[in-house]
Amino acid sequence: MARRKLVAGNWKMNGSRAALAELDAVAAAANAAPQVDVAMAVPFTLIAAAAERVPDLSIGAEDVHERDSGAHTGCVSAGMVKEAGARFTIVGHSERRADQGETSQDAWAKAAAAHRNGLHVILCCGETEAERNAGRAERVVQAQIEKSVPDNADGSWFTLAYEPRWAIGTGRTPTVEEIASIHAIARAKLRMLIGDAADGVRILYGGSVTGDNAATLLAVENVDGALVGGASLTAAKFVPIIEAAAGL
Length: 248
Ligand code: 13P
Description:
Layout: E1 5-10, H1 22-31, E2 36-41, H2 44-53, E3 58-61, H3 78-84, E4 88-91, H4 94-100, H5 104-116, E5 120-125, H6 129-133, H7 137-148, E6 158-162, H8 176-194, E7 202-206, H9 214-218, E8 225-228, H10 235-246
The structure holds 1,3-dihydroxyacetonephosphate (13P).
């Protein structure tokens, strides 16, 4: 089944109003590549300004709370980011798992909240270096998917991202064989959970994606796009990744 490639950026805890100027060239590149979907997750404080500045570009949040409202000081709900102009949110990112102790169960609840509020979801999974060295990468990813993917997930609102933690921000990536293996296992696990709908779900690769390696990584079977951290912060680094996706 043909799935449109998705190139999504994640600014993490970076950026400022001034940095939003980078999005002008990203939006232009996205418009020049209509065969590719392009999205950018930015800090909560920049969502409204980003969505207003580049209305054609899909702007998203990096996280949402699992509840719609209530006494949760400092948290932000899916409805709030939607109202601010977000079209999607990332959930279950490994930095939230590591820094905030989030679990796959939390990611499941956040994905459900996002969907309930009309947001597309990019749900992250991925093993640590110790888990990979112990030969447990496949089992870890399978277990994360099993615990975090909602029963009603389908490609119209749901995307999975495989991000091995040891490849994030390190300049190291798995081999194409390792990526193909995990993505095939992820697809099979999705099929067990949601049946034929699994064919329509995009599975992104994330971890040290750059303009130099994007074409190689995006050509791997079952890699339907990229989730990009550091190289999403400037148009100069992000646009070549969009162009690589468009060239496939
Ligand atoms: P880097 O592209 O900086 O390795 O980050 C990947 C990531 O965590 C995207 O969510």
